[in-house]
Amino acid sequence: MIVVTGANGHLGRLVIEELEQRVPTEKIVAAVRSPEKASDLGVEVRHADYDRPETLASALAGAEKVLLISGSEVGKRVPQHTAVVTAAKQAGVHHLVYTSAPRADSTPLVLAPEHKATEQVIRDSGLTYTILRNNWYVENYAQSIAQAAETGVYLGSAGEGRVAAAPRADYAAAAAAVLTGAGHENRIYELSGDVAFTYADLAAAIAAATGRQIVYRDVTAEEHRATLAAAGLPPEVVDLVTTLDANTADGLLAETSGELRALLGRPTTPLAESVLATL
Fold first, then answer.
1. Distance from the first to the final alpha carbon of the chain
2. Residue 32: which CATH number?
3. Does residue 135 carry a pLDDT above 90?
4. The predicted structure's pLDDT at residue 229
5. Are 33 and 73 in contact (CB under 8 A)?
6. Cα–Cα distance between 265 and 243 in angstroms, integer?
7. Exposure of 231 by Cβ count < 10 A (0-12 exposed, 13-18 middle, 19+ buried)?
8. Is 134 left (phi over 0), alpha (psi -120 to 50) or beta?
Protein backbone atom coordinates (compact mmCIF):
# COMPACT_ATOMS: atom_id res chain seq x y z
CA MET A 1 0.00 0.00 0.00
CA ILE A 2 1.18 3.52 -0.84
CA VAL A 3 0.26 6.44 1.41
CA VAL A 4 0.60 10.00 0.12
CA THR A 5 0.62 12.68 2.82
CA GLY A 6 -0.54 16.18 2.01
CA ALA A 7 -2.56 14.51 -0.72
CA ASN A 8 -5.13 17.29 -0.97
CA GLY A 9 -2.55 19.88 -2.02
CA HIS A 10 -1.67 20.86 -5.58
CA LEU A 11 1.21 18.37 -5.85
CA GLY A 12 -0.48 15.65 -3.83
CA ARG A 13 -3.56 15.54 -6.03
CA LEU A 14 -1.39 15.17 -9.12
CA VAL A 15 0.57 12.34 -7.49
CA ILE A 16 -2.69 10.53 -6.67
CA GLU A 17 -3.78 10.88 -10.31
CA GLU A 18 -0.47 9.46 -11.49
CA LEU A 19 -0.62 6.54 -9.07
CA GLU A 20 -4.14 5.68 -10.17
CA GLN A 21 -2.74 5.09 -13.65
CA ARG A 22 -0.06 2.71 -12.32
CA VAL A 23 -1.53 0.66 -9.46
CA PRO A 24 -5.02 -0.43 -8.33
CA THR A 25 -6.84 2.30 -6.44
CA GLU A 26 -7.29 0.03 -3.41
CA LYS A 27 -3.52 0.19 -2.93
CA ILE A 28 -3.50 4.00 -2.67
CA VAL A 29 -4.27 6.03 0.45
CA ALA A 30 -4.60 9.82 0.56
CA ALA A 31 -3.56 11.15 3.97
CA VAL A 32 -4.95 14.67 4.44
CA ARG A 33 -5.53 17.29 7.10
CA SER A 34 -9.19 17.81 6.11
CA PRO A 35 -10.74 14.52 4.89
CA GLU A 36 -14.01 16.23 4.02
CA LYS A 37 -12.18 18.17 1.30
CA ALA A 38 -10.71 15.06 -0.31
CA SER A 39 -13.78 12.96 -1.03
CA ASP A 40 -13.32 13.46 -4.78
CA LEU A 41 -9.88 11.83 -4.94
CA GLY A 42 -11.29 8.39 -5.71
CA VAL A 43 -9.08 6.54 -3.21
CA GLU A 44 -9.18 5.76 0.50
CA VAL A 45 -8.83 8.93 2.55
CA ARG A 46 -7.34 9.05 6.05
CA HIS A 47 -6.94 11.89 8.49
CA ALA A 48 -3.31 13.00 8.92
CA ASP A 49 -2.41 16.34 10.47
CA TYR A 50 1.31 17.13 10.65
CA ASP A 51 0.61 19.21 13.77
CA ARG A 52 -1.24 16.35 15.50
CA PRO A 53 1.09 13.35 15.74
CA GLU A 54 -1.69 11.26 17.24
CA THR A 55 -3.41 11.22 13.83
CA LEU A 56 -0.40 9.84 11.99
CA ALA A 57 -0.22 6.30 13.35
CA SER A 58 -3.62 5.33 11.95
CA ALA A 59 -2.95 7.26 8.73
CA LEU A 60 0.20 5.23 8.00
CA ALA A 61 -1.00 1.86 9.33
CA GLY A 62 -0.25 -0.91 6.84
CA ALA A 63 1.75 1.32 4.51
CA GLU A 64 4.64 -0.20 2.60
CA LYS A 65 5.65 3.08 0.99
CA VAL A 66 4.98 6.66 2.07
CA LEU A 67 5.39 9.89 0.12
CA LEU A 68 6.01 12.70 2.59
CA ILE A 69 5.13 15.88 0.74
CA SER A 70 6.83 18.72 2.55
CA GLY A 71 4.58 21.06 4.51
CA SER A 72 3.90 24.61 3.38
CA GLU A 73 4.26 26.37 6.71
CA VAL A 74 7.77 27.83 6.73
CA GLY A 75 9.27 27.67 10.20
CA LYS A 76 7.15 24.71 11.32
CA ARG A 77 8.23 22.07 8.85
CA VAL A 78 10.99 20.30 10.78
CA PRO A 79 8.81 19.23 13.73
CA GLN A 80 5.94 18.46 11.33
CA HIS A 81 8.11 16.26 9.13
CA THR A 82 9.77 14.64 12.12
CA ALA A 83 6.36 13.56 13.39
CA VAL A 84 5.64 11.83 10.06
CA VAL A 85 9.05 10.15 9.96
CA THR A 86 8.59 8.89 13.52
CA ALA A 87 5.14 7.54 12.70
CA ALA A 88 6.49 5.85 9.55
CA LYS A 89 9.21 4.17 11.58
CA GLN A 90 6.72 2.94 14.15
CA ALA A 91 4.37 1.70 11.41
CA GLY A 92 7.10 -0.42 9.83
CA VAL A 93 7.09 1.49 6.54
CA HIS A 94 9.51 -0.08 4.07
CA HIS A 95 10.30 3.00 1.99
CA LEU A 96 9.90 6.73 2.68
CA VAL A 97 10.02 9.23 -0.18
CA TYR A 98 10.41 12.94 0.61
CA THR A 99 10.04 16.09 -1.50
CA SER A 100 13.00 18.33 -0.69
CA ALA A 101 14.78 21.35 -2.21
CA PRO A 102 17.65 21.65 -4.72
CA ARG A 103 21.04 20.83 -3.17
CA ALA A 104 19.37 21.05 0.23
CA ASP A 105 22.46 19.95 2.15
CA SER A 106 24.82 22.54 0.67
CA THR A 107 22.93 25.45 -0.92
CA PRO A 108 22.38 28.91 0.61
CA LEU A 109 18.87 28.88 -0.92
CA VAL A 110 16.57 30.60 1.57
CA LEU A 111 14.13 27.67 1.76
CA ALA A 112 16.75 24.94 2.12
CA PRO A 113 17.53 24.78 5.88
CA GLU A 114 14.29 23.05 6.89
CA HIS A 115 14.72 20.55 4.07
CA LYS A 116 18.32 19.87 5.06
CA ALA A 117 17.21 19.24 8.63
CA THR A 118 14.41 16.94 7.48
CA GLU A 119 16.76 14.95 5.28
CA GLN A 120 18.99 14.38 8.30
CA VAL A 121 16.01 13.25 10.39
CA ILE A 122 15.15 10.73 7.67
CA ARG A 123 18.71 9.40 7.51
CA ASP A 124 18.91 9.12 11.28
CA SER A 125 15.63 7.17 11.37
CA GLY A 126 17.19 4.19 9.63
CA LEU A 127 14.31 4.04 7.14
CA THR A 128 14.96 3.19 3.51
CA TYR A 129 14.44 6.48 1.72
CA THR A 130 14.45 8.39 -1.53
CA ILE A 131 14.95 12.16 -1.54
CA LEU A 132 13.34 14.06 -4.40
CA ARG A 133 15.00 17.45 -4.47
CA ASN A 134 12.43 19.31 -6.53
CA ASN A 135 13.49 22.52 -8.25
CA TRP A 136 10.97 25.34 -8.69
CA TYR A 137 7.43 24.78 -9.94
CA VAL A 138 6.36 26.92 -12.90
CA GLU A 139 3.05 27.37 -11.06
CA ASN A 140 4.91 29.30 -8.35
CA TYR A 141 4.94 32.15 -10.87
CA ALA A 142 1.20 31.90 -11.61
CA GLN A 143 0.24 35.18 -9.96
CA SER A 144 3.13 37.04 -11.58
CA ILE A 145 2.33 35.46 -14.95
CA ALA A 146 -1.32 36.54 -14.72
CA GLN A 147 -0.32 40.05 -13.66
CA ALA A 148 2.15 40.35 -16.52
CA ALA A 149 -0.49 39.17 -18.99
CA GLU A 150 -2.71 41.99 -17.74
CA THR A 151 -0.16 44.79 -17.41
CA GLY A 152 2.40 43.92 -20.08
CA VAL A 153 5.22 43.97 -17.52
CA TYR A 154 6.88 41.14 -15.61
CA LEU A 155 8.58 42.71 -12.61
CA GLY A 156 11.47 41.10 -10.77
CA SER A 157 14.95 41.56 -9.37
CA ALA A 158 16.65 38.38 -10.58
CA GLY A 159 18.70 39.97 -13.35
CA GLU A 160 19.77 37.34 -15.85
CA GLY A 161 19.51 34.53 -13.32
CA ARG A 162 18.03 31.30 -14.62
CA VAL A 163 15.46 28.90 -13.18
CA ALA A 164 15.25 25.24 -14.20
CA ALA A 165 11.57 25.03 -13.31
CA ALA A 166 9.05 22.45 -14.46
CA PRO A 167 5.31 22.12 -13.86
CA ARG A 168 4.07 20.25 -10.81
CA ALA A 169 2.69 17.50 -13.02
CA ASP A 170 6.22 16.53 -14.07
CA TYR A 171 7.40 16.27 -10.47
CA ALA A 172 4.24 14.33 -9.57
CA ALA A 173 4.90 11.83 -12.36
CA ALA A 174 8.47 11.40 -11.14
CA ALA A 175 7.29 10.77 -7.58
CA ALA A 176 4.82 8.15 -8.83
CA ALA A 177 7.58 6.50 -10.85
CA VAL A 178 9.73 6.21 -7.73
CA LEU A 179 6.85 4.94 -5.58
CA THR A 180 5.93 2.23 -8.07
CA GLY A 181 9.37 1.41 -9.46
CA ALA A 182 12.50 -0.35 -8.27
CA GLY A 183 16.10 0.65 -7.71
CA HIS A 184 15.44 3.97 -5.99
CA GLU A 185 16.36 2.93 -2.45
CA ASN A 186 18.57 5.34 -0.48
CA ARG A 187 19.04 7.61 -3.46
CA ILE A 188 18.87 11.37 -3.86
CA TYR A 189 17.56 12.87 -7.09
CA GLU A 190 18.17 16.47 -8.15
CA LEU A 191 15.03 17.12 -10.18
CA SER A 192 14.66 20.06 -12.57
CA GLY A 193 13.37 21.09 -15.94
CA ASP A 194 15.48 20.38 -19.00
CA VAL A 195 15.95 24.07 -19.79
CA ALA A 196 16.80 26.86 -17.36
CA PHE A 197 15.10 30.13 -18.31
CA THR A 198 15.49 33.78 -17.37
CA TYR A 199 12.63 36.05 -16.41
CA ALA A 200 13.05 37.66 -19.83
CA ASP A 201 12.44 34.22 -21.35
CA LEU A 202 9.38 33.86 -19.13
CA ALA A 203 8.07 37.24 -20.30
CA ALA A 204 8.56 36.12 -23.90
CA ALA A 205 6.61 32.92 -23.21
CA ILE A 206 3.76 34.97 -21.70
CA ALA A 207 3.80 37.20 -24.78
CA ALA A 208 3.60 34.19 -27.07
CA ALA A 209 0.69 32.75 -25.09
CA THR A 210 -1.29 35.99 -24.96
CA GLY A 211 -0.38 37.63 -28.26
CA ARG A 212 0.54 40.77 -26.31
CA GLN A 213 3.82 42.56 -25.86
CA ILE A 214 5.25 41.57 -22.47
CA VAL A 215 8.57 42.88 -21.19
CA TYR A 216 10.67 41.92 -18.22
CA ARG A 217 11.44 44.90 -16.03
CA ASP A 218 14.45 44.18 -13.86
CA VAL A 219 14.70 46.38 -10.80
CA THR A 220 16.93 46.62 -7.76
CA ALA A 221 16.05 44.58 -4.70
CA GLU A 222 15.15 47.80 -2.89
CA GLU A 223 12.76 48.91 -5.63
CA HIS A 224 11.29 45.43 -5.77
CA ARG A 225 10.68 45.46 -2.03
CA ALA A 226 9.03 48.88 -2.21
CA THR A 227 6.76 47.83 -5.08
CA LEU A 228 5.64 44.65 -3.34
CA ALA A 229 5.05 46.48 -0.07
CA ALA A 230 3.02 49.14 -1.86
CA ALA A 231 0.89 46.35 -3.34
CA GLY A 232 -0.03 45.31 0.19
CA LEU A 233 2.05 42.17 0.58
CA PRO A 234 3.01 41.31 4.18
CA PRO A 235 6.65 42.02 5.14
CA GLU A 236 7.51 38.33 5.43
CA VAL A 237 6.23 37.69 1.90
CA VAL A 238 8.14 40.68 0.56
CA ASP A 239 11.31 39.33 2.19
CA LEU A 240 10.76 35.85 0.78
CA VAL A 241 10.04 36.99 -2.79
CA THR A 242 13.00 39.35 -2.99
CA THR A 243 15.37 36.88 -1.34
CA LEU A 244 14.29 34.18 -3.79
CA ASP A 245 14.96 36.55 -6.68
CA ALA A 246 18.42 37.21 -5.23
CA ASN A 247 18.95 33.44 -4.98
CA THR A 248 17.85 33.14 -8.61
CA ALA A 249 20.30 35.85 -9.65
CA ASP A 250 23.01 33.85 -7.90
CA GLY A 251 22.18 30.77 -9.98
CA LEU A 252 20.87 28.64 -7.12
CA LEU A 253 17.92 27.35 -9.16
CA ALA A 254 19.67 27.01 -12.51
CA GLU A 255 20.95 23.42 -12.45
CA THR A 256 19.64 21.14 -15.19
CA SER A 257 20.63 17.67 -14.02
CA GLY A 258 18.54 15.63 -16.45
CA GLU A 259 17.37 13.41 -13.58
CA LEU A 260 13.73 14.48 -13.83
CA ARG A 261 13.77 13.67 -17.53
CA ALA A 262 15.27 10.25 -16.75
CA LEU A 263 12.58 9.38 -14.21
CA LEU A 264 9.85 10.55 -16.58
CA GLY A 265 11.25 8.70 -19.56
CA ARG A 266 10.52 11.78 -21.66
CA PRO A 267 11.57 15.45 -21.89
CA THR A 268 10.20 17.77 -19.23
CA THR A 269 7.30 20.01 -20.26
CA PRO A 270 8.49 23.06 -22.25
CA LEU A 271 8.09 26.49 -20.65
CA ALA A 272 5.75 27.74 -23.38
CA GLU A 273 3.36 24.85 -22.74
CA SER A 274 3.50 25.36 -18.98
CA VAL A 275 2.80 29.09 -19.25
CA LEU A 276 -0.15 28.47 -21.57
CA ALA A 277 -1.58 25.95 -19.11
CA THR A 278 -1.04 28.37 -16.20
CA LEU A 279 -2.89 31.13 -18.01
1. 36
2. 3.40.50.720
3. yes
4. 95
5. no
6. 34
7. exposed
8. beta
